């Protein structure tokens, strides 16, 4: 900070991440809008609160342990290194009692970096929220939100979304914009819960076919998805390191040319991801419209699935590759959604498992073929990107860190009768009593005013 | 005298690190915050269970359940 250029570089980086946080807030607003829109009117305020309260709960637990897990678990621990691998000082600075977590003038980046990662954590938890609406207890959902937001996503990011992660080093895992580390894990988590939670009352007929439980406000659902697109820009940009030189990277890159990089410190450009974001969005929307015969919800969801499928390699893909991959992922996730619904009687109220989980999984695998042999890291000794490394990574994200922990926790909560709301409450609607209280308050005010006439 | 490590800005900023109050008490503040967090969950689960029990007691009749089932 003692030269103009040095100070500008630091302040630019600080401001860069800060802007991503403000943009990513829109993801959460979008999730709330589309989740509330998808719920029935008799449940919508409860649905809003269920999602909204993950904000403070994931935030404080991210402060208590989520951030530390990210910096502590890159090596496993015990796979390529111990706790804090490859630089223990980062993990020590990320404990809630560390002096590194408070305001200090010699470090301007930790706070905004912490915030950007936290917004990823909210996103992961919020993806799960939509799938389980109208029958999960708030307490149970918030346990799952903390689990994915501050534990399992943090572990997967340490393993597969950091410059020193063991999955990067051994498997050559590449997931630049989080197809797996956010979306596949969130989809897997939602599926693990849904297997135990069961469908909403009335979702399936006696012959096993599904009824469509219509959203109370389809327009709100679509605008919510549109807002998620908008917030997704912040998400993408936050996945990059905006400016760094080879000296700071300390790897094999020669010369002195500064660049933007992915989280793995592999070079890319903001221009590349801008074009690929838009092309994969377009591929998803075109296919979503076609496969759903013009259904607005699935067209918008297709756009999201398109981006999510291409995200693993959108730092490198040619734009036409991003377009095709986005379209392919959207087609497959749409077909899988209805197949799983029919086969396993899974009631995913907003298609979150499909849009995030299946598209994310598929995107990670596709990147293994399209980017086969590309170096996963600037550091010597790291495996290159391969189909088998990516497939193993997708399994870890969706099943090992997504489905399995959620299924276990759901079983535990169900055994304590803390997973699902009582049957009577589900029939009445979660807002039934508060709606009656509001009606009574309204009638009371009207009666009082009439008495004044 | 200041609750922060700074009691004057007549300093070289290159030598300034921490600027928050109560340096040295970070561990105690963490314990305090964790207890508050866990306590909130204990309160919330009791509150939620009691709310459902009260609502079922008040509205759990066939008449209300039928009305609720008809609302979308």
Architecture overview:
The complex is a heterodimer of chains A (about 450) and B (about 70). By secondary structure, chain A is an all-alpha fold. Chain A has a single domain (about 5-245, about 260-420), classed as Ammonium transporter AmtB like domains (Ammonium transporter fold). Chain A has helices at about 5-40, 45-50, 55-70, 90-95, 110-130, 140-160, 165-170, 180-195, 220-240, 245-250, 270-290, 295-310, 320-345, 350-370, 385-415, 425-430, 430-450, and strands spanning about 240-245, 260, 265-270. In chain A, a hairpin with a 5-residue loop joins strand 2 and strand 3 (about 265-270). The longest helix of chain A is centred in the first third of the chain and has 35 residues, at about 5-40. Chain A starts with a helix and ends with a helix. The mean pLDDT of chain A is about 95. Chain B has a domain at about 25-70. Chain B is built from 2 helices and no strands.
Which descriptors would you attach to this protein?
heterodimer; A: 453 residues; mainly alpha; Ammonium transporter fold; three-stranded antiparallel sheet; 2% strand; globular; B: 72 residues; 2 helices; 60% helix
Provide a quick synopsis of the model.
The complex is a heterodimer of chains A (453) and B (72). Chain A has 453 residues and is mainly α.
SSE class of chain B = mainly alpha
Helix content estimate of chain B? 55-70%
**Structural class, judged by helices and strands of chain A?**
mainly alpha
Element string of chain B (H = helix, E = strand): HH
**Could you tell me which chain pair has the largest interface and how many residues each side has?**
A-B, 35 and 33 residues
Strand % of chain B is: under 5%
On the 0-100 scale, what is the average pLDDT of chain A?
96
Question: How are strands sequenced across the largest beta sheet of chain A?
Answer: 1-2-3
Number of strands of chain A: 3
Q: What is the rounded distance between the termini of chain A?
A: 70 Å
Main sheet characteristics of chain B: none
Q: Find the count of extended strands of chain B (DSSP E, 2+ residues).
A: 0
Q: Return residue spans of chain B where pLDDT drops below 50 for at least 5 consecutive residues.
A: none
Rounded mean pLDDT score of chain B: 95
Query: Can you tell me the CATH architecture of chain A?
Result: Orthogonal Bundle
Largest sheet of chain A: 3 strands, antiparallel
Number of helices of chain B: 2
């Amino acid at each position: 900070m003692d030269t103009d250029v040095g100070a500008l570089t630091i302040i630019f980086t600080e401001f860069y991440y800060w802007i991503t946080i403000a943009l990513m807030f829109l993801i959460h607003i979008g999730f709330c809008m589309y989740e509330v829109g998808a719920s029935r009117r008799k449940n919508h305020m409860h649905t809003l609160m269920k999602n909204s309260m993950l904000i403070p709960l994931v935030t404080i637990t991210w402060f208590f342990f989520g951030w530390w897990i990210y910096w502590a678990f890159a090596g496993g621990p015990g796979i390529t290194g111990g706790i804090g691998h490859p630089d223990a000082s980062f993990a020590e600075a990320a404990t809630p009692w560390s002096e590194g977590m408070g305001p200090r003038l010699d470090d301007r980046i930790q706070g905004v970096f912490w915030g950007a990662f936290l917004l990823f954590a909210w996103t992961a938890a919020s993806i799960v929220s939509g799938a389980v609406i109208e029958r999960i207890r708030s307490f149970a959902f918030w346990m799952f939100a903390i689990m994915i937001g501050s534990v399992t996503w943090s572990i997967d990011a340490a393993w597969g979304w950091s410059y020193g992660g063991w999955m990067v080093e051994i498997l050559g895992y590449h997931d630049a914009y989080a197809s797996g580390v956010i979306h596949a894990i969130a989809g897997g988590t939602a599926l693990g819960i849904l297997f135990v939670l069961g469908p909403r009352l009335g979702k399936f007929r006696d012959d096993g076919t599904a009824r469509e439980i219509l959203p109370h406000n389809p327009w709100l659902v679509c605008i919510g998805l549109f807002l998620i697109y908008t917030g997704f820009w912040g998400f993408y940009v936050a996945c990059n390191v905006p400016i760094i030189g080879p000296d700071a990277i300390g790897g094999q890159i020669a010369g002195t040319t500064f660049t933007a990089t992915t989280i793995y410190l592999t070079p890319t450009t903001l221009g590349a991801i801008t074009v690929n974001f838009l092309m994969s969005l377009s591929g998803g929307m075109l296919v979503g419209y076609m496969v759903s015969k013009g259904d607005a919800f699935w067209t918008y969801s297709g756009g999201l699935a398109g981006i999510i499928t291409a995200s693993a390699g959108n730092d490198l893909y040619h734009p036409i590759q991003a377009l095709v991959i986005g379209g392919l992922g959207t087609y497959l996730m749409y077909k899988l959604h209805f197949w799983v619904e029919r086969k396993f009687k899974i009631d995913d109220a907003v298609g979150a498992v499909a849009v995030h989980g299946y598209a994310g999984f598929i995107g990670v695998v596709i990147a293994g073929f399209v980017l086969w042999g590309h170096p996963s890291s600037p550091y010597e000794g790291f495996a290159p990107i391969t189909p088998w490394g990516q497939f193993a990574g997708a399994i870890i994200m969706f099943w090992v860190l997504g489905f399995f922990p959620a299924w276990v926790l759901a079983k535990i909560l169900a055994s304590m009768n803390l997973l699902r709301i009582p049957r009577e409450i589900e029939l009445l609607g979660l807002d039934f009593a508060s709606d009656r209280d509001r009606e009574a308050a309204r009638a009371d005010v009207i009666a009082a005013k009439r008495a004044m006439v | 005298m200041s609750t922060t490590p700074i009691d004057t800005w007549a300093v070289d900023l290159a030598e300034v690190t921490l600027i928050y109050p109560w340096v040295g008490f970070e561990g105690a503040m963490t314990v305090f915050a964790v207890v508050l967090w866990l306590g909130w969950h204990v309160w919330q689960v009791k509150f939620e269970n009691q709310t459902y029990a009260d609502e079922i007691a008040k509205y759990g009749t066939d008449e209300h359940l039928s009305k609720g089932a008809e609302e979308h």
